[in-house]
C-alpha cells in the first residue's frame, strides 16, 4: 500500500481522535506496570508524583504506590540526585521538548547505585499546554557502565574508570583523546548528560560503594583507592550522591548480607539438612 501525504494526515487525525475519545480513567497507563525491569513515573508541572509504576515504591522504602503520590524527588532521594532530576524535569516542562537517552545514577532493586537510561517526555492537557511529564527509567546493565556515543567520550570514560586512584586532570584526559578540553567537554556532555567532572566523581563514589560492600579496607584506604586524598572530601562527595555516610553504608550492606544468609540458612533447615526440599 502506497501512503500519500493526504493519507498520512488522515491516519494521524484518526489516531488523534482515537486517543481523544478515551475515557481519562480508562487506565491505559497501567500497562506500563508490565514492562520488565522498567520503572515509570508521571509527574505534574511542579514535579510531584501523580502516578508511579508498581516497581517504584519498594526502592524508596514505601509499601504502596499511593504513599508516593504528591511527593517530590527531593522527598525520597539524596539532595544532589534530586537536584539533577528536577533540573532535567524543568528543562522538559519549560521547553516542551523530550529529553531522551540520558544516563543517570539511581538505585537498583538491591538499593545499590547503578547507571540507568532515562527518557522524559512532556505531557499536554486538552489546551495543548505542558501539564507534566512521563519518565521511563530502564537499566543500563553493568555497574559503572554508561552508554556513550562518541569514540572520544568512550576513550575518556575508559581512561577514567581505569585510573580512579590517580589524579584525573581534564587537560590530561583531553590530550589522551586528541581534543581540546572544550571539545571533549561538549562531546562528553552530549553523550552522557554529565560533565567530565561529574562523571569522575560519580564513578569514584560508585567504586567506593563496591569496596565498602566487598572489601575490609579502612575508609581512609578506600578514599585513597578511589582518588580522594582527603577523608573529609571523600565523605562530602559520598554523601552528595548517597543518602548516608560511607561507614553507615557499609554497616547497612553488612546487615543485609547477614540477614540474607540467615534467611537462606533458615530455608535450608526447613527443607532438610542437605538444603533439598524433602517433598521432591
3D structure, described in words:
By secondary structure, the protein is of the alpha+beta class. The chain folds into 2 domains: 108 residues, Beta-Lactamase (2-Layer Sandwich); 107 residues, Homeodomain-like (Arc Repressor Mutant, subunit A). The protein is built from 9 helices and 5 strands; from the N terminus they run H-E-E-H-E-E-E-H-H-H-H-H-H-H. The protein has a 5-stranded antiparallel β-sheet. It is globular and about 65 Å long. The chain starts with a helix and ends in a 10-residue tail after the last helix. The C terminus is likely disordered.
Biggest sheet record:
5 strands, antiparallel
Approximately how much helix is present in the residues? 40-55%
Kindly provide the radius of gyration, computed on alpha-carbon positions and rounded to a whole number of angstroms. 23 Å
The CATH H-level homologous superfamily of the largest domain? PAS domain
List SSEs in N-to-C order: HEEHEEEHHHHHHH
Please give the order of strands in the largest beta sheet: 2-1-5-4-3
Can you count the beta strands?
A: 5
**How many angstroms does the end-to-end distance come to?**
58 Å
Q: How many separate domains make up the residues?
A: 2
How many helix segments? 9
Low-confidence stretches: 142-146, 256-280
CATH fold naming of the largest domain: Beta-Lactamase
CATH class of the largest domain: Alpha Beta
CATH architecture of the largest domain: 2-Layer Sandwich
What class, by secondary structure content? alpha+beta
Shape type: globular
Share of residues in strands? 5-15%
> What is the arithmetic mean of pLDDT?
81
Amino acid at each position: 500500500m502506497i501512503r500519500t501525504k493526504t493519507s498520512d494526515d488522515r491516519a494521524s487525525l484518526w489516531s488523534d481522535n482515537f486517543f481523544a475519545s478515551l475515557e481519562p480513567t480508562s487506565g491505559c497507563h497501567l500497562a506500563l506496570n508490565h514492562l520488565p525491569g522498567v520503572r515509570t513515573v508521571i509527574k505534574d508541572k511542579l514535579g510531584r508524583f501523580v502516578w508511579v509504576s508498581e516497581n517504584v515504591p519498594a526502592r524508596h522504602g514505601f509499601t504502596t504506590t499511593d504513599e508516593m503520590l504528591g511527593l517530590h524527588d527531593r522527598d525520597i532521594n539524596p539532595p544532589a540526585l534530586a537536584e539533577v532530576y528536577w533540573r532535567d524535569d524543568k528543562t522538559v516542562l519549560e521547553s516542551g521538548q523530550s529529553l531522551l537517552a540520558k544516563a543517570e545514577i539511581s538505585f537498583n532493586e538491591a538499593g545499590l547505585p547503578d547507571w540507568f537510561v532515562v527518557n522524559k517526555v512532556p505531557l499536554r492537557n486538552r489546551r495543548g499546554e505542558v501539564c507534566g511529564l512521563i519518565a521511563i527509567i530502564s537499566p543500563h546493565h553493568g555497574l559503572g557502565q554508561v552508554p556513550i556515543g562518541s569514540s572520544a567520550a568512550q576513550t575518556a570514560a575508559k581512561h577514567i574508570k581505569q585510573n580512579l586512584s590517580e589524579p584525573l586532570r581534564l587537560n590530561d584526559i583531553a590530550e589522551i583523546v586528541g581534543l581540546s578540553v572544550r571539545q571533549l567537554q561538549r562531546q562528553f556532555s552530549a553523550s552522557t548528560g554529565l560533565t567530565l567532572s561529574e562523571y569522575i566523581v560519580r564513578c569514584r563514589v560508585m567504586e567506593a560503594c563496591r569496596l565498602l560492600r566487598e572489601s575490609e579496607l579502612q575508609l581512609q584506604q578506600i578514599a585513597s583507592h578511589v582518588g580522594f586524598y582527603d577523608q573529609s572530601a571523600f565523605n562530602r562527595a559520598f554523601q552528595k550522591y548517597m543518602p548516608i555516610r560511607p561507614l553507615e553504608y557499609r554497616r547497612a550492606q553488612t546487615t543485609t548480607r547477614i540477614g540474607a544468609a540467615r534467611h537462606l540458612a533458615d530455608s535450608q533447615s526447613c527443607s532438610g539438612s542437605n538444603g533439598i526440599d524433602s517433598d521432591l
